[in-house]
Design goal:
about 375 residues, Butyryl-CoA Dehydrogenase, subunit A, domain 2, Butyryl-CoA Dehydrogenase, subunit A, domain 3, 10 helices, about 50% helix
Length: about 375
C-alpha cells in the first residue's frame, strides 16, 4: 500500500504523536476561548510539520503532497482549527511561492516560512468570493513600485501571519485576466488587520479582514506574472483543496474514533451500545464512506506528485470529503445521544468544524462547476 512506504509511515507517526500530545489537550480550550494556538504553531515550526512539502534546499522537509495530506489528517482528527492553519500556510501559500516565485523570492521567504513566519492567502473580498473577476482591490504601478488599495475578508492566519499573498487588479478592463499576486510583508505601511471573525467552527484559527490603504510594495513583490494572478490563484486552490479534503477526512475519522470509544463504554438496556446492531451498522457505513473519501484525497495527491493534471480530482476529493465530514459528525452526535449535544465530548465541536469544509477554498457548488465542466457539460 502507498501509505506503507517508510517515509510515509514516519511522517504519519510523527504527526499523530504530536497531535495527540500537543494539539488534542488544547483543542476544547481553543474552541471555547477562540484563542489562536501560538504555542502550538511554534512547536509545529520546530519539528518541521509546517514545511513538509517544501524542498530541503529552502529548509523544508522535502516531502511530497501525499506526505503532507497524511500529516494534515492526523492533526485534523483532534483539532480542525490547527489543521487549517497548517493547510493555508503549507498547502496553499508555501506551495504557490515554491511554484511561482523567483529564486530571489524563494531564498528570501521559504527559509523563514519553514522557521518562524506564517503566511496568509488574501483573495476573498466582501463582494468577491467565488467570482474573483469582481475583485475591487487595486494595484497601481508607480515607477518601480505598486500601490495597493482595497479590503480583503475571511483571511485565514491574518493577524498572525508575517507574509500575505494578496491578489489585486492591475488591469480592471481585463477582469479576471487583469489580476496580479503580490508578496506583502505584514509590517508594510498601509496594511492593517481587523478584529477576528466570530465563527461557528474552527474557532481557534484566526479569520480577519485585511485592509490595504496606499500600501506600497516594490515591483519585486510580484509573484508570478503581471496579470497572471488568477491562474496562479486557481493553481493554488487546486492544491489547497487537497488539503481541505484531508482536513475533512481527519474530522470524520476523529469523530468516528471518539464515538467508538464512547459506545464501547456506554451501557443501555444492560449492554454496551457497541453490542447493538444499529450502532454497528451505522459505524460500519460511516467508516466505509470515510475510507472512500480518503482514497479520493490520496488519488488527487498521487496525481499531483506524478506531475499529472489533478484539478478535477482535487475538486472531487474536496466535494465528497466535506460532505462525508458533515454526514459523519452528525451521525456521531446522534450516537452520543444527549451527551453529543454538550461540550463534554468533542463530537459537538467536530460537527461545527465540519461545516466550513463545504465552504472555504471553493464552495461545494464551485467544485461541482469544476467537475461538470471537466465532464464536458456545457
Amino acid at each position: 500500500m502507498l501509505e506503507e512506504r517508510p517515509e510515509y509511515v514516519l511522517i504519519r507517526k510523527l504527526a499523530r504523536e504530536f497531535a495527540q500530545k500537543e494539539v488534542r489537550p488544547l483543542a476544547a480550550e481553543l474552541d471555547r476561548t477562540e484563542r489562536f494556538p501560538t504555542e502550538t504553531v511554534e512547536k509545529l515550526f520546530q519539528i518541521g510539520l509546517l514545511g513538509i512539502n517544501c524542498p530541503s534546499a529552502y529548509g523544508g522537509q522535502g516531502g511530497d503532497t501525499m506526505a503532507y495530506v497524511l500529516a494534515l489528517e492526523e492533526i485534523a482528527k483532534v483539532c480542525a482549527a490547527t489543521a487549517v492553519i497548517c493547510s493555508v500556510h503549507g498547502g496553499l501559500c508555501m506551495d504557490l511561492l515554491n511554484s511561482y516565485g523567483t529564486e530571489g523570492q524563494k531564498q528570501l521567504w521559504l527559509p523563514r516560512m519553514n522557521r518562524d513566519t506564517l503566511c496568509a492567502f488574501a483573495l476573498t473580498e466582501p463582494d468577491a468570493g467565488t467570482d474573483a473577476s469582481m475583485l475591487s482591490t487595486t494595484a497601481v504601478r508607480d515607477g518601480a513600485a505598486y500601490t495597493l488599495n482595497g479590503c480583503k475578508t475571511f483571511i485565514t492566519n491574518a493577524g498572525h501571519a508575517g507574509l500575505y499573498i494578496i491578489l489585486a487588479s492591475t488591469d480592471r478592463s481585463r477582469g479576471a485576466r487583469g489580476i496580479t499576486a503580490f508578496l506583502v510583508p505584514a509590517d508594510t505601511p498601509g496594511l492593517s488587520v481587523g478584529k477576528p471573525e466570530e465563527k461557528m467552527g474552527i474557532r481557534g484559527s484566526s479569520t480577519c479582514e485585511v485592509v490595504l490603504e496606499n500600501c506600497r510594495v516594490p515591483e519585486t513583490a510580484v509573484l508570478g506574472r503581471i496579470n497572471g494572478g488568477f491562474r496562479l490563484a486557481l493553481s493554488g486552490l487546486d492544491c489547497g483543496r487537497i488539503g481541505i479534503g484531508a482536513q475533512a477526512v481527519g474530522i470524520a475519522q476523529g469523530a468516528i474514533d471518539e464515538t467508538i470509544r464512547y459506545v464501547n463504554t456506554r451501557f443501555q438496556f444492560g449492554k454496551p451500545l457497541s453490542r447493538m446492531q444499529n450502532t454497528q451498522f451505522v459505524l460500519a457505513s460511516l467508516q466505509t464512506r470515510t475510507d472512500a473519501a480518503r482514497l479520493l484525497v490520496w488519488r488527487a495527491a498521487a496525481l499531483r506528485d506524478a506531475g499529472r493534471p489533478y484539478g478535477t480530482e482535487a475538486a472531487m476529493a474536496k466535494l465528497f470529503a466535506s460532505e462525508i465530514a458533515n454526514e459523519v459528525t452528525r451521525a456521531c452526535v446522534q450516537l452520543f445521544g444527549g451527551y453529543g449535544y454538550t461540550r463534554s465530548y468533542p463530537v459537538e465541536r467536530m460537527m461545527r468544524d465540519a461545516k466550513i469544509t463545504e465552504l472555504y477554498e471553493g464552495t461545494s457548488e464551485a467544485q461541482k462547476m469544476v467537475i461538470s465542466r471537466a465532464m464536458g457539460v456545457r
